[in-house]
Amino acid sequence: MTEQPSHSKPDDRPLPVLSNRTIIGAAVILVLVGAGLAITLLVAFGIGQGATAQLDAIKTAGTIVIGTGGAAALWLAARRQRTSEIALNQKRVDQLAADRAFEFQQEIAEQNRLHLERVATAAEQDAATRRLNDLYLKAVEQLGSDKSVVRLGALFALERVGNEDPKQRQTVIDVICSYLRGPFAPAPSTPRPLGRARPMPARGRRLTSLPASKNTDSRHQEREVRVTAQRLLARVLRGADDHLDEDNCWRDMNLDLIGATLIDLDFTHCRMHIA
After folding, report:
1. Could you read off the pLDDT tens digit of each residue along the chain, which spans 275 residues?
2. CA distance 87 to 169
3. Taking each helix axis from N to C terminus, what angle separates 20-41 and 51-142, rounded to the nearest 10 degrees?
4. Measured between alpha carbons, how far is 59 from 196 in angstroms, rounded to an integer?
5. C-alpha span between 238 and 134 (Å, rounded)
6. Phi, then psi, of 179 in degrees rounded to 5
7. Quick one: which of 1, 102, 149, 233 has the most CB atoms within 10 Å?
8. Alpha helix positions (H), the chain
9. Which residues are CB-neighbours of 238 under 8 A, at least 6 positions away?
C-alpha cells in the first residue's frame, strides 16, 4: 500500500535577508583566517627554510584565502539564484491566481448576462402572451356584437392570434366553427311578382319610397360575415398551392361544422379533419 504524498501548506514566512553587518563580519573573518593561515604556514614551514620556502608559505596561505573567498562567492551566487527562482515561482503563482480570478469574473459576467437575457426573453414572451390573450378575449367578445363591422374585425383579430401563436390555432378554429354553427336564416331573394301595381296615393299626399326592412339588412350583413369566416378558414388551411407563407398555413386542423349554415364553401387544397 503506497502512501499518498502529503501536500504541505505553503510556507508564508519571509526569507532571511543577508544584512551588511553579516557581510562585513564574514569578510573580516575571511581576512583573519587568511592572516592566521599565513602566519601559521610561515612559522611551520618558512622560518629557517629560506626566502623561497617563506614565499611558498605565503602563496599557499593566499591560495587558501582566495579559495575560501571563492567558496563564499559561490554560496552567495547560489543563494541569489535560489532567491530569483523563488521570486519567479511566486510570480508564476500570482499570475495563475490572477488568471483564475479573471476567468472566474468572466464566468460570473457570462452567467449574469445569460440570466438577464433569460429574464428579458421570459418578460417579452409573457408580455406577448398577455397581449395575444387580451386580443383573443376581445375578439371573442366582439363576435357577439350586433354590428357586422365589429364582427368582421373580430374574425381578422382571431386570424392574427393564430398566426402569431400556433398553439392557439385549434382554439381559433373552434371559435369560428362555433360561430358558423349559430342560427342563421338567409334573407329571401324572391323578386316581387310582376303585374302588381302599387296603389296610387290619395290626392294631396306625397309619394315616398318605403323604408327597407332592418331585418333584411341585418341578414345580408350576417351573410357577409359568415362568407368572410368561411374564406378565412379556407385561407389559413391552404398551403403553398394558395401561394401563402408556409408558416401561416394551419395544417391538419379539426373542424366541427355539424349543423352550420355554409354559403358557397370552397375548401380546395385544404388539409383538415371535418366532423
Report:
1. 445 554 455 556 665 666 667 777 777 777 777 777 777 776 766 566 667 777 777 777 778 778 877 877 888 888 888 888 888 999 999 999 999 999 999 999 999 999 999 999 999 988 988 998 999 999 999 998 989 999 999 999 999 999 888 889 999 999 999 999 988 877 665 444 444 444 444 444 443 443 445 677 888 899 999 999 999 999 888 854 444 556 667 888 899 999 888 888 888 888 787 76
2. 71
3. 160
4. 161
5. 27
6. -65, -40
7. 233
8. 20-41, 51-142, 148-164, 169-180, 214-237
9. 244, 249, 268, 269, 270
What residues form DSSP beta bridges with 273? Answer: 254
Nearest alpha carbon to residue 150 among 158, 160, 142: 142
Cell reading at 109: 459576467
**Residues paired with residue 270 on neighbouring β-strands, in sequence order:** 238
Q: Which residue is associated with the grid cell 433569460?
A: 118
Q: Which three cell numbers stand for residue 59?
A: 602563496
Compute the distance between CA of residue 156 and CA of residue 228 in angstroms, rounded to an integer.
9
Q: How far apart are CA 259 and CA 230, in angstroms?
A: 15
Strand 272-274, strand 253-255: pairing: parallel
How is residue 108 written as a grid cell?
460570473
Q: Where are the domains of the chain?
A: 20-119, 143-185+214-274
Instruction: Kindly tell me the burial class for residue 151, based on how many C-beta atoms sit within 10 Å of its own C-beta (0-12, 13-18, 19 or more).
Output: buried
Element of type H or E holding 273: strand 272-274
